[in-house]
Amino acid sequence: MNVIILLLIASVSVAALFLAAFIWSVKNGQFEDDVAPAVRILFDDKPAVKREAEVKIEL
Amino acid sequence: MSIVTTITPKCYHCGEDCLTDSIHVHEKDFCCNGCKMVYEILNQNGMCDYYSISNNPGTSQKVKVREDKFSFLDDEKISRSLVQFTDETQTHVTFYLPQIHCSSCLWLLENLHKLEENILSSKVNFEKKEVDIIFHHRSCSLRKVAELLTAIGYEPYISFNDMGKKTPGYNRSKIYKLGVAGFCFSNIMLMSFPEYFGIDVKEQSLLHLFRYGNLLLSLPVFFYSASEFYISAWKSLKHKFLNIDAPIVLAVWVTFARSLYEVFSGTGGGYFDSMSGIVFFMLAGRVLQDKTYRQLSFERDYTSYFPVAVTRLSEEGAQSVSLPDIALNDTLLIHNEELIPADGIITRGKALIDYSFVTGESLPVEKEMGEIVYAGGKQTGANIEILVIKEVAQSYLTKLWNRKDEDRTKDEERSFVHLLSRYFTWILLTIATIAAVYWYMHDVAKMWNAVTAVMIIACPCALLLSNTFTNGNILRRLGRNHLYLRNAQVIEDIAAADCIVFDKTGTLTTGLYQDIVFEGSLLTAGQKKRIAALASQSTHPLSKAISVWAGEKTNLPVHNYREFPGKGIEGLVNGELVSMGSEAFITQQISASNDGSVVYVAIEEKIVGRFKFHNHYREQVPEMLQQLGKRYRLAVLSGDNAGEQPYLRKLLGYETTLLFNQQPADKLEAIRQLQKAGKKVMMVGDGLNDAGALLQADIGIAVSENNNNFTPASDAILSAAQLPQLVHLIQLCKANKKVVMAAFVISVLYNIIGISFAVQGVLSPMIAAILMPCSSISILIITFGMSNYFGFREHLK
């Protein structure tokens, strides 16, 4: 019986982890544009994204 | 029909046919110097990969961008409203580039730093067609960045509308809600298995654990994810209307309340799985619908058409001012191809104003010094100066746009689905009451059981689900064929229309080309050359068209060239007097016939003939009109002259209303008359001159060459190239109702089976739990299958 409770906690927390990952990816803007990243990865010389400091854009 | 057999070389940059064969570099042909220049810039910087990623990736550069067009970006106030973020060294800015369309674009725009070292990074958002640029503002300016983009063929589109307010980000809250609902739904399903399949009596405590677990997991669904529907239902209730979300809310609440009761009283496991399932599927439908609509703006007003700033001349010299700062009695300098922002009087220069945008006339109007020009006209030719006599917001055009239609009562919730669901709700409540009364008399203990079971099983979610998914699927299909509707309601409106009104210029015809016919004595080669030589002297569009028609390049000398504004031109070509112009100018008499645009030609004062200009109809549009004419009442409203009347009459028959010389207000009135006669009117138009009519009509479809540019506020946007498909697109919209009805009938069947068990009070949670997803999923399959079948039958993409 204890095993079932343990399993239950494990499965729900794993699912919760995925939910958190999903929310993070939405927040991160990964669903904003689903064309560009797929194309970008095929370019040989990657555009040099050189930022001197990571600056948060405040909107 | 003749078939052109010669192969015209395609421009290496933009892929358009090269009409001249004189522009090439490195054995590559270009259609114009603009394209060639872009190539040279890229070549110098070793960025010709641009051309190898996609073929002819550029956009035509035929229309040159004025050199100091972006000088307004030097203005502190204007640039501040565009820039997103700035510190001591860096500036972040987002430009909207409507030209973005392929992977080459992406590659080039993300390699901007190779062209300009002060650009630190650039990142493209392909779906939004935006590029985020970070640059050093010490050694580079916003204007320079904009000019660099322009130089490589990506002129940023900066509209007055965008300023000050940030573009709203994609509404993420629904996605979060969907994520949460999905998480809870799947876990509740998992924990409901013991409930369905039974559990050993010895482990009853486990059952309680699962039940409370489900209860806990359903809380976020009930309070967070479902709030989407509460808000919408509450909004409609405030307007005293029972909208489509109200029954969903009812079902969710009843299910939740009963489940709570069962769990706390220990009588059962409740229906948390069904409740979260409804919420999850309905949310998924909404999110899909939203996604189709991220790109489009249906609510543009005049400000998105106008330039951001204009040049004001004052004693201190020329300076850029933004539109609201224009005051009465300011003197403005209007450049070639620039829109006149406010009504004014010409104080210098000769204006040749293209009002096609406002009125639909295809030919520019000439205006002399001292005459009034109205806002919205586009100057072609040399620069002019105007004295502002009305402020921007008070100008004729702006007023037209801001006109609020008081008598336009568009009931937002008049879909047949709403009607159906309302009846459905009443019938449902009646059945529940009857069941309650019956059990009250026979077996009181079973009463609540039966009533709530009826409510749950008969939740119209299958109907709503089928409606949302069918609409979503059809909207996407239409979108793939470049017809974008404002919302799902428009599908039904299109299906209900019985009268279609077209604008002519820019909608049925293209504004760009004209078909020329020469009538008169056969021209000798020498005469043709003389005509070409004279015509090439003038910038008037008709002269330009004639010189293209005459074709041959000539270097005959033209002496004593004179232009008579509004009348014609003349000059000594190779010693012979050639004159061209209006009938009155050449023949000294006016015939009563209305032949549209005609240019007479005389050589040595002897009339040799006349050129007749016809509008160039879009490909397959005449066929489409004939097809539509069989099923609909058609009408054509044109701001242009009646030159096309005979042709359209022949094409469309005598029942069709053809009205010419229509002012914007006339068009609106014509639509209103049709509506008074009981017609459901669909208006198809393009320009600003149609804006009022598009709003007045039951459905306004704006035709656009480019989906991201210039469309007046409307219910739908149709890409011009897809206009011939209109018949099929309308058919698909009509199929929508059939699909929803079919799905509804099936869901009613499910419901009848369910209810018949429920009213007897013998429906076990097990059967309910199986019936629910089964009905939902089978209905989804039916709606997708059927709508795709109809799309396939109409040969749509």
How would you explain this protein's 3D organization?
The complex is a heterodimer of chains A (59) and B (797). Chain A has 59 residues and is an all-alpha fold. Chain A has two helices and no strands. Chain A has helices spanning 2-27, 36-40. The longest helix of chain A has 26 residues, at 2-27. Chain A is elongated. The model of chain A is unreliable at 47-59 (pLDDT under 50). Chain B folds into six domains: 69-162, Alpha-Beta Plaits (2-Layer Sandwich); 171-293; 307-391, Calcium-transporting ATPase, cytoplasmic transduction domain A; 416-482 and 735-797, no CATH class; 483-509 and 617-733, HAD superfamily/HAD-like (Rossmann fold, 3-Layer(aba) Sandwich); 511-616, Calcium-transporting ATPase, cytoplasmic domain N (3-Layer(aba) Sandwich), CATH 3.40.1110. Helices cover 44% and strands 18% of the residues of chain B. In chain B, the strands form six sheets. Chain B has a seven-stranded mixed beta sheet, sandwiched between helices. In chain B, strand 20 (568-573) and strand 21 (576-581) form a beta hairpin. Chain A binds chain B through residues 1, 4-5, 8, 11-12, 15-16, 18-19, 22-23, 26-27, 31-36, 39-40, 42-43, 47-52, 55, 57-59, and chain B through 84-85, 87, 89-90, 92, 103, 106-107, 110-111, 113, 120-128, 134, 166, 169-170, 172, 175-176, 179-180, 183, 186-187, 190-191, 203, 206, 209, 213.
